[in-house]
Predict the structure.
Amino acid sequence: MFGTNQHRSSFISRIALFSLVSIVLVLANCSENNGVLEPLQDNWEKAVPFQQVPQGLSSLSAETCGACHQDHYNEWKRSTHAHAWTDQQFQAEIHKKSSPYLCINCHIPLENQQEYLIEGLLDGDIYKPKKKKNPHWDKQLQQEGITCAACHVRDNKIVGPTGTTKAPHPVKKDPEFLSEGLCISCHNANATLTPTLACTFETGDEWKKSKISSEKNCISCHMTDTTRSIVPGYEPRLSHVHSFPGSGIPKSPDHHPDMFNGLDIKLAAVPQTLEKGKVLRTKLTLTNANAGHRVPTGDPERFIEIIQELRDPQGRILASQRDTIGEKWQWYPTAKKLADNNLNPGESRSYVLRTAPKRTGTYELVIRVDKHRLNKKSAHYNKLGEDYPLSVLIYQEVIAIRVE
Ligand code: HEC
Ligand code: HEC
Ligand code: HEC
Ligand code: HEC
Ligand code: HEC
């Protein structure tokens, strides 16, 4: 399996490699007509085959499902799944020549959502897909990214957990398909596509290795159980919340995703008064208490930033300490992970600021922790709008300390 990583890594690799890749692409185009056509192999190389609208429904769109499944629709709309295509960063990435055709397969997985049909790869080269216009392309459905049908429509039927006979549409019972395997098919990837395009998206593997995997899976944590009518007027039944809470970092200023906090953050007691010249020592401890995988997980560009500052009575920063939790990659000449200090499930780490204020007065200790999608440099490189949210604040403490 190959995964999410590739894509992420790919963008950064592109930063360094863009010009080189463009040259390779130009050369590649010259021999396009002489290549040998090789079939697509891995599931992430292919789209989910064309699906007809199931009997009794007017279209595959989430809005159509939402006319009856109102709660599911409203929850899904605030998920990042609903933004997997329209996301500014994703759009910036896929318009680069260095992004292979296959980037779309986990973001708009249904053939119905894709403008072109890919018949194979010339000489097996991911930069030389043989394309044909898709006569069934549904541009509206494309906008919906990982829409209801991406997880629920197969063999022109609605796939469901119980096979209920109350629905006005055909239902195929397949709880095995609607299991963590479905999530992992997109949320795990480990492959080197080209020397500079690696993929290390390992949320599935991280979960399998964790102790918690015997008790909880992607669905029990990210789609909590509830009892409710799944269509107004029907008997309440077992249901699952569809907002897929995660990092909580929005995709646009008016996007309000549900946040799932993996970290337990504790600050050891700090003295309210201190003798001048004496050392002030903070101890902030972060524990991956709630996630069934590492934090951060998935996209290698994500990181957690911990900032501790002591400001003097004039508001000037007297001492500061910045730490990050995340991965460091080199993309050129070959993609290689240089460092990784993501927190394993259950793991704790402490961060200390040490300083000795020399003058009397009231100082301010400011501590904050933010989750970041990517750093400002990458955002700038990708020309993301000023209003594109890059991070979300998850912890802040401001403590006054009197130095006497
Ligand atoms: C195997 C499935 C898969 C493929 C193929 C794939 N992605 Fe993704 N992509 C994901 C998943 C899953 C996430 C969310 C991961 C997370 O947040 O942990 C994601 C997230 C992203 C994001 C948002 C990152 C963020 O931090 O919000 C961008 C941009 C993106 N992918 C671009 C690409 C590009 C470009 C390619 C092709 C080089 C690609 N993807 C190929 C599965 C895939
Ligand atoms: C006209 C109303 C209506 C529309 C439109 C509709 N459904 Fe349903 N659906 C129902 C009813 C009614 C049930 C059964 C309710 C019950 O079991 O309590 C149901 C059941 C389901 C189930 C559960 C199946 C199981 O095995 O338990 C799923 C999943 C589902 N629908 C998905 C969808 C999706 C996806 C769409 C859009 C492509 C959609 N539905 C469109 C009315 C609708
Ligand atoms: C068809 C591929 C696909 C499937 C299937 C899939 N995901 Fe995703 N998921 C993605 C992509 C792509 C993103 C990132 C979208 C973006 O950032 O724009 C994502 C985002 C997420 C996020 C939010 C990440 C964040 O913090 O922004 C969570 C949580 C998540 N998925 C959980 C799940 C769970 C649980 C399942 C199984 C029930 C699942 N996914 C199935 C592709 C998929
Ligand atoms: C990323 C995959 C994914 C997407 C997208 C998704 N679902 Fe689901 N859905 C599931 C899974 C998995 C289950 C079954 C959970 C179980 O029973 O363990 C489920 C269950 C359901 C059920 C059965 C009742 C319940 O709540 O368990 C209905 C109805 C349903 N989904 C409707 C929808 C609708 C409508 C949309 C779009 C607005 C949608 N789903 C989008 C994965 C998805
Ligand atoms: C024990 C509960 C638990 C399990 C099991 C679990 N997750 Fe998570 N997941 C979390 C929490 C909590 C977060 C929020 C982490 C944070 O603080 O950013 C999270 C975050 C995420 C994110 C957002 C990326 C990020 O770094 O925040 C994705 C994507 C995701 N999970 C996918 C999955 C998938 C796929 C599976 C199954 C292989 C899974 N999760 C299993 C609890 C869980």
Residues 62, 65-66, 69, 72-73, 76, 81, 146, 148, 150-152, 160-161, 178, 219, 223, 230, 239-240, 242 surround heme C (ligand 4) (CB under 6 Å).
